[in-house]
């Protein structure tokens, strides 16, 4: 690709040389004003009861917001309400994240002519002076974040990371060309990124289809067995009208116990958390002793325990809520722990529960306003029970079939990561002047 004819030192360590006619200015000199999103509940006043729009969340792979959703304002003072109104061209920066691997500082330009749009908590609103296009600034911020410069300003508090935006704006610089060239760069990157996003979307659809195929294989095997010629009989299981004739149906309590002890002696100092159908180490920052008061109340789990996240069943229809403990440890007592009794193939029941989760069957088992699931409710559920030898055969079959699908999904995920890296490299090269846009 074409480069500019002359370059100069930018004076910015992470950037190096830039085209000789580009300018470098501190961020603080191009910002007209900035407003911080409120943390927690707003003042308890009822001056406003109008329907507004707010930024719902960010798409990790895009530079614009993912969606806008209805939001009723009921408890904001007039000043707080006015301060958080968005205008076209305002930049929003999401300045908090969930852990060390979660990107922070994702930014969007508000690009709608809607006077009652409002931004959410944990974001900062920035209005630029006319010197720099907000859309060029967004692409530049994307390049800056990818260079990891922003990590100098990230602070960790009990596992949550937040950008110190005041320090960031005070110390960092922006490199930019004349306004006409900024607009050309934005137009070029919009076109290129749109094509890349289409390619990414197609690969993500392939992954979705493979995941659906995997779910069908699991569901069929754990509820109908492996013999296509087997005779079936009707059941008393509400969600499963028939099972193979030689299978039994029994309450969950005959296969699992819910008698789980707490980590009262602080035997385990590190906890697990749910991550899309798996248990992974929880993000922890600081001295383990700082977590003692909380972790002594966590549940002790053993390898082979089947866990179900039964919280907020009426809100979340996406997360995979079933996981099998890979080792001994602890997890919040808010989750349901099913400990297998003697002679139970926990791998079979993990797969069965995952199939039930994919069918969203647990959502109808919770109680209370938030539909929270407990072992007390779960233990009453009837389950299909194949002979133990057949459970082993079903697990082996599913493992073999799904391993091939998992390999294809892994390959597609690697391709997606390569495409994302290419996209980020392209953005960085263009907005820092390493590539000339014709």
Break the fold down into its secondary structure elements and pairings:
Elements: E1 7-9, E2 17-19, E3 23-26, H1 27-30, E4 31-36, E5 51-58, E6 65-72, H2 78-83, E7 91-94, E8 96-97, E9 107-109, E10 117-118, E11 123-128, H3 134-146, E12 154-157, E13 160-163, H4 165-171, E14 173-176, H5 179-224, E15 232-234, E16 242-244, E17 248-251, E18 256-257, E19 272-274, E20 279-281, H6 292-295, E21 299-301, E22 306-308, E23 322-324, E24 329-331, E25 336-340, H7 346-358, H8 375-378, E26 382-385, H9 388-431
Parallel strand pairs: 5-10
Antiparallel strand pairs: 1-2, 3-14, 4-11, 5-6, 7-9, 7-11, 8-13, 12-13, 15-16, 17-26, 18-25, 19-20, 21-24, 22-23, 22-25
Task: Describe the protein in words.
The chain has 438 residues and is α+β, with helices and mostly antiparallel strands. Helix content is 32%, strand content 23%. It contains nine helices and 26 strands. The chain has helices spanning 27-30, 78-83, 134-146, 165-171, 179-224, 292-295, 346-358, 375-378, 388-431; strands spanning 7-9, 17-19, 23-26, 31-36, 51-58, 65-72, 91-94, 96-97, 107-109, 117-118, 123-128, 154-157, 160-163, 173-176, 232-234, 242-244, 248-251, 256-257, 272-274, 279-281, 299-301, 306-308, 322-324, 329-331, 336-340, 382-385. The strands form ten sheets. The protein has a four-stranded antiparallel β-sheet. A hairpin with a 2-residue loop joins strand 12 and strand 13 (160-163). Helix 3 (134-146) crosses helix 9 (388-431) and helix 5 packs across helix 7. The longest helix has 46 residues, at 179-224. The protein is elongated, with a radius of gyration of 27 Å. The termini are close together. Mean pLDDT is 83; it is low at 39-76 and 98-103.
